[in-house]
Each structure stands twice: as C-alpha cells, then as structure tokens.
UniProtKB/TrEMBL annotation:
<feature type="coiled-coil region">
    <location>
        <begin position="79"/>
        <end position="106"/>
    </location>
</feature>
<dbReference type="InterPro" id="IPR036537">
    <property type="entry name" value="Adaptor_Cbl_N_dom_sf"/>
</dbReference>
<dbReference type="InterPro" id="IPR054000">
    <property type="entry name" value="MLKL_N"/>
</dbReference>
<dbReference type="GO" id="GO:0004674">
    <property type="term" value="F:protein serine/threonine kinase activity"/>
</dbReference>
<keyword id="KW-0175">Coiled coil</keyword>
<dbReference type="Pfam" id="PF07714">
    <property type="entry name" value="PK_Tyr_Ser-Thr"/>
</dbReference>
<dbReference type="InterPro" id="IPR059179">
    <property type="entry name" value="MLKL-like_MCAfunc"/>
</dbReference>
<dbReference type="InterPro" id="IPR006597">
    <property type="entry name" value="Sel1-like"/>
</dbReference>
<dbReference type="GO" id="GO:0005524">
    <property type="term" value="F:ATP binding"/>
</dbReference>
<dbReference type="InterPro" id="IPR011990">
    <property type="entry name" value="TPR-like_helical_dom_sf"/>
</dbReference>
<protein>
    <submittedName>
        <fullName>995_t:CDS:1</fullName>
    </submittedName>
</protein>
<dbReference type="InterPro" id="IPR051681">
    <property type="entry name" value="Ser/Thr_Kinases-Pseudokinases"/>
</dbReference>
<dbReference type="Pfam" id="PF22215">
    <property type="entry name" value="MLKL_N"/>
</dbReference>
<dbReference type="InterPro" id="IPR008266">
    <property type="entry name" value="Tyr_kinase_AS"/>
</dbReference>
<dbReference type="InterPro" id="IPR011009">
    <property type="entry name" value="Kinase-like_dom_sf"/>
</dbReference>
<dbReference type="InterPro" id="IPR000719">
    <property type="entry name" value="Prot_kinase_dom"/>
</dbReference>
<dbReference type="Pfam" id="PF08238">
    <property type="entry name" value="Sel1"/>
</dbReference>
Length: 727
C-alpha cells in the first residue's frame, strides 16, 4: 500500500486561517487614523496616499501588541525586550509624523516603500510571537527551548534591519540591546524549563509535553461563547455533560451523619463506580432553551478539567429522589475554610496546599478560564489534605457568571483594587491580574486562618484597599525553623510583583516546599484549634503591609502623518482575497512580491501555486522548500503542506520522522486535517508508527471539535462522544 493511500490523500488547506488583519479595515481607530493622514497628505503631495494603509496597519498592530503584553503570563523578560523595540517603532513613526516634509524624498522612493511593507510584516511577527511565548498554549508550539531563541533572534534581526532601512533610530544601542536580549532569553528560558519540569497538575502529560486537553478545552470554550451565532454547526448543540443513570449511584455501606451537608436541598454522599461522590443539586432550565444549552456546554467543559488533580472532578449529571444533581468528587474534609475553622493547619501543610491550589489555577488559566471567586471557602479538601478548586463559573448552581457579584459583601474581602472601582457607568472587566490578586489574599487567609478584613463592612474595605493599604502580617511565637518559613512565605505575599504571573508565585512556593517540606515527614498536618499562635496576639506585632503596583497605562496613540506616492503594492490580504475570487494572476504577482520581501506567509502561498501549477508550471521541489520556510515560521497550514509534500514526491526522499515532526507541529498548531491524520496514524499504526490508542483518540477529538468530518465519522464508529469522557 502506498504512503499516499495510507494517508487518505492530501488535505485541503484553509487559507483564511492566515488572514491576520481581516478586521483591520473595519476598526474605528484605523479609519480615524487614515482620515488624519489623508488630511495631512495635501501638505506634502498626493503621492503620499499609498503609504496610508501601511501606517494605519502598523499603528493598529502596535496597539494590539500593547494589549497582548498587558495580559502576558509567561516569559515577561522576553516580552519586555520586544516591547523595547515596539516602543522604538512607535517613537519612530511619531517622529516621521513631525518631520513629514523632511522625509518627502523617502516617501517617493520605491525601496523605502518596500521597506515599510516589511516593517508592517515584522511588527505582525512580533505580535504573534509575544502572543505565543506569553501563554502556555502558544509556548507549546516551540518544540524546544532553542526554538524560542532562534525565533526571537530571527525576528529581532529582521526588525533591526528594517529599522535601519527606514532610517529609524533605536533608543538603545545595538550592542547594549543585544546584551539585554541575551540575558532576558537565558533567564526566561531557564525559568520556563524549570517551571514546566515542576508544575505537573495535569498541565504536563506523560510524555513531558503540554497536555492536549488544554487545547481541547479552549476549542470547546470558544464554541460555547459563540453558541448563539453558531447556527450552521449543529454539533455544538450536542455538547453536554455525561449522563449517569440513577441506579449507578448507591448509598455508602456505612452511613454517617456527615453524608448530608448543608441545608435543603442538601449535598448527598453516594458511591459511583466504587468512588465516593457528592451529589449537588442543580437547576438547569428547559432542555431545549438557549440557557440550558449553554449550561450544558459549560458542564461538558467542566468534565474535561478532570486531567487536573487539583480541580474537583465532575463526573456528570444524574437524578437523586427525582432531583437533578451534579455528581462531583467527594471531599471528606469539606472546604478549606471549614478545615481551618475546626483545626489549626501545620505550616508545612499550608505550603503544600498553597502549591497545589496554584497548580489548579494554572491549569484553569491555561484553558483561558477564570475562577472569579478565589477564597478558601471554594477550595475543597480530601481526607489526604489535597486541595481541589471548586465552585468556579462552570460549576455554579444556575446563578450565572460570577461577574454578577450577587454576594458582593462576601467577595469584597478578596477583591482586586480595580474591581472595587467597578460601576455600571464605568465597568471594569475581571482578568488574570484580578484573579492573581485574589489568590494572594487567599494565601494571607490560609496563613492566618481567618477572612481578610474580618468584620469590616464593604465601604471600609474599599476605602482601605483603594488607599493602597492591605491586611497586616503579624506573626506569633514559633520555633526558629517555622519563623524562617513564615519569613519566606511573607515575601511571596508582600512581593509588589506578585500580580505579574502565577508562574512566579508557583516557583516561589515550590522553592519554599523544597526547603521546608521534606518528603516522607511524619509531622502532623492538623492540630487542635487555637493551638498555634498565628497572629501574635500574645506579643507586640510587627506589621508588614501587602503592596500592589497595579497595571501599566497604555501609551498615547495620537498620530498624524504625511507621506508621498509611488506605485502601490497589493497587501497580502488583498492577494489572498484575489485568490479566493480566482483572480490567480493578480494573486500570484502579489504573493511573489511579498515573498521577495521575506514574508513567510507569502512564501507559503507562492509554494502553493508552484505545487498546484497555478499561473506557472509545477515545481514541487521548490514548493516543498517554500512550505518548509513558512512552516518553520509557525504557519500551521504550511507545516501541514510541508509534511505532505514529503509524500510521493519523486524529487524528495521520504523521511518518516520529518513527516511525523511537521504533521505533529501542524496538529498542535490546531490544524484539523493534521489532527485527523495524526490521530489516524496513532490509532492504526500506519507508516510503522507505534500504536498509541490514547494519543490517537485525543487528536481525533481535537479534529472533531474543529469540525473535521472524517474525525467525527471515525469517532462515531468507535462509539465515542467528543464532549464526554468516560472511564
């Protein structure tokens, strides 16, 4: 059987995925900037007009880069190095605005125009790169730490070259900047490598790679968020939680009074597949209503979070005494607040609890899910003192998102300063920084085993926090080793950079655990209540305030430029649009022109035309070379095309490992055709690849989530529901 037959033929590549700036022309800011430039153009001459869309584009990209940077969670030093260049680019364009008349000669120069096109391209590359390295989902696209360094070096070299070609001045001398770059790369890559080696918690799979489930959850989450506008995709309406038959839920053999929790309707303890579970009442609206479908979608996502041992496991929906319930993992000790109200928690146990909560939050954030209510009341504890995050948005009892803040008087004790300023007239969105602030307050709550600002009313808390003040850290009497632990713990809470990322908090807690929590220790985790002197009530306290720097302000973007006219070059987006209209001659000229300027997306399209023989004769060897160039730039469709260009190509010797490498890159880059083929390979052991049923099913699920028809068909034949995990 030929390789071609085995792989079910070559895929159809989705070109629209490459259209990076399709919404640019409709952006209000872009239109306004263009109007300003047109007004200024008459002062220099009509020839300025070809530059207007380029300046509008680069201005928009810079503003989007700043937005991405504000939400960066990882590799902040690398992002900072690139932001130095973004700031330099912004300043250079502003200078161009002030000196438009002096630059008229440049505006009439064709080479200067081409350089400006490359300038826009490299700014887009910086935007994509920062977006990738600053998030776990994006970081996994880099196979090795060296790939990050190579990509960074490639982009910065290209940026420095084009800045020179445009006669733009860098704020930092090249040698000094490169030294800072190398320090940032070395530091961030080392920290990221150590972080990924220590995080565990379902984020890293058995192959030491970032878990595919995170990608699956992101796809499902996006579908739920756009459920109302997804009428053309009926499969979305099948997204629902696992259904458990009531007969599968049995009573515990030895019932106890603690098997019922809370007031009616109370939570009941049952046994499901030999596991102790909690049956929590839930009220889902009518089956076919939009609200019910959305809740079902949320619950289906909740079921996917089972890969994290630090998130309370959701098994599915069922009925108990004719009442609908959520079937959840049973937490014997109740909530973390209930534990510290009843006992004193040993310090080494507090560190390990904090570390595991951080793992759970990192898993959620990697799925782009925010908890909205991080406090000890929402952390459930097992009999082995393992924390499980619970009661976040997707597991609430039909009360809607936490952003409604119906229980504002309770939540305010952990609320970030910016959220305290939220009003109906000036709403403030809840984001990762808000969540990290709340986690910092949870660390304080865990340390002192009481609610922050206890017995304070909402107005007093708001005035206190908005004035820059925080809860006090005042330790009680303790042994020297515990005093050392407390001091290090306080540094984590009191760190003004605490809100930068969970990664930093995790690494600090991990170091604390290494130093103070020895494996195999027999020290008790719990003591009788009030045994420990936690807050120093028997001695004069030495207060230390928790600080918070808040966020950075966006720079002013008021721009007014003037430029001159030369023969125009179609934008790459216009070239792709021409291809879609089957104006292949126009498209080909555009792709070649941008490819000559070094644009990797254009190289992909040029390779595609050479492969298919559009406009020019087929040259599949050259096409494969172009696909590889684009593939190494992280373009998913190019990675797929390059992999398949190795198949049955007489001009190239087939390399199985190279084929698998690039097919995997495309699949991990969310290309559904690659996901299907990779899943098929692992399921059936094609191309002499070792069978891996679990990995094969995971890739087929991803492909099915992306509406790949063959993947859906294959899973249906196997009786697998893509939205429900079964044991």
């Amino acid at each position: 059987m030929s390789v071609h037959t085995v792989l079910n033929a070559a895929p159809v590549v989705i070109g629209s995925a490459i259209d990076i700036t399709s919404s640019m022309s409709s952006a209000a800011s872009g239109i306004e900037i263009t109007k300003q430039f047109l007004g200024a153009a008459s002062a220099v001459g009509e020839a300025v007009k070809p530059f207007l869309p380029l300046i509008s584009a680069v201005t928009l990209v810079i503003s989007e880069i700043v937005d991405i940077y504000e939400t960066a969670q990882y590799n902040k030093k690398i992002c900072n190095s690139l932001m130095d260049r973004v700031t330099a680019a912004e300043a250079a364009v502003k200078t161009l605005q002030r000196r438009k008349s002096e630059n008229e000669k440049n505006f009439r120069n064709l080479e200067y125009y081409k350089a400006f096109v490359r300038f826009v391209d490299v700014m887009k590359k910086i935007q994509i790169f920062i977006g990738n390295v600053s998030q776990l989902q994006g970081y996994k696209k880099f196979m090795h730490a060296s790939s990050v360094k190579e990509k960074f070096t490639s982009i910065t070299d290209e940026f420095d070259t084009v800045m020179s070609d445009l006669h733009f001045t860098m704020a930092v001398a090249n040698e000094e900047q490169r030294k800072l770059d190398q320090e940032s790369l070395t530091s961030d890559i080392a920290e990221m490598t150590k972080f990924l080696g220590r995080i565990e918690g379902g984020i890293i799979d058995n192959n030491n790679k970032i878990n595919i489930v995170l990608q699956e959850v992101l796809i499902m989450k996006d579908k739920v968020e756009h459920m109302n506008s997804a009428q053309n995709d009926p499969s979305i309406w099948n997204m629902k939680a696992n259904e458990i038959k009531p007969v599968e839920l049995t009573d515990p053999l030895n019932g106890r009074s603690t098997d019922r929790r809370g007031e009616a309707p109370c939570i009941l303890k049952k046994i499901y597949k030999v596991q102790e579970v909690a049956c929590k009442p839930i009220n889902i609206p009518e089956t076919d209503s939009p609200d019910a479908k959305k809740i079902q979608g949320h619950l289906a996502i909740l079921g996917k979070l089972r890969d994290s041992p630090n998130i309370l496991r959701f098994y599915g929906l069922s009925y108990v005494d004719n009442n609908q319930v959520m079937v959840l993992e049973w937490a014997e000790m109740g909530s973390l607040k209930e534990v510290y109200d009843k006992y004193d928690i040993a310090w080494h146990a507090k560190v390990l609890i904090a570390l595991d909560i951080c793992r759970g939050l990192t898993f959620l954030h990697s799925c782009d899910i925010l908890h909205h209510d991080v406090r000890c009341q929402n952390i459930m504890m097992t009999a082995r003192m393992e924390p499980k995050i619970s009661n976040f948005n997707y597991s609430r009892m039909s009360h809607g998102p936490t952003s409604d803040m119906k229980h504002i008087t309770d939540v305010v004790h952990w609320m970030a300063p910016e959220k305290l300023q939220h009003t109906r007239e000036k709403p403030v969105s809840y984001n990762f920084k808000c969540e990290i602030f709340s986690f910092g307050m949870l660390l304080w709550e865990l340390a002192f085993e009481k609610v922050p600002y206890e017995k304070w009313d909402m107005i007093k808390i708001k005035e206190h926090v908005l004035s820059g003040k925080r809860e006090k850290i005042s330790w009680g009497k303790a042994s020297p080793d515990i005093q050392k632990l407390q001091k290090d713990y306080a540094k984590i809470i009191d760190d003004p950079q605490i809100r930068i990322s969970l990664q930093g908090i995790f690494m600090a807690l991990d170091k604390l655990a290494d130093e103070h929590c020895k494996v195999g220790t027999t020290s008790p985790s719990l003591f009788p209540d009030k045994k420990l002197d936690l807050d120093g009530t028997s001695q004069e306290p030495v207060p230390i305030s928790i600080s918070d720097d808040g966020g950075m302000e966006l720079p002013d973007m008021d721009m007014d430029f003037s430029i001159d006219s030369i023969p125009t070059l179609l934008s790459l987006e216009e070239g792709i649009a021409a291809h879609k209209r089957k104006e292949i001659n126009v498209a080909w000229e555009c792709f070649v022109a941008h490819s000559d300027l070094g644009n990797k997306t254009a190289k992909y399209w040029q390779g595609y035309y050479l492969w298919e023989g559009y406009v020019v004769e087929k040259d599949r060897k050259r096409a494969s070379e172009l696909f590889k160039e684009a593939a190494d730039d992280g373009i998913a469709d190019a990675q797929l095309r390059y992999a398949f260009s190795l198949v049955n190509n007489p001009s190239i010797k087939f390399d199985r490992q190279l084929f698998l490498e690039y097919l995997t890159k495309a699949a991990d880059n969310n290309n559904p055709t690659a996901q299907f083929n990779l899943g098929d390979l692992y399921l059936n052991g094609k191309l002499k690849i070792q069978v891996d049923l679990e990995k094969g099913k995971k890739y087929l699920r991803l492909a099915a989530h992306n509406n790949q028809p063959k993947a859906k068909e294959a899973l249906e034949k196997m009786g697998i529901n893509i939205y429900v995990d079964t044991d």
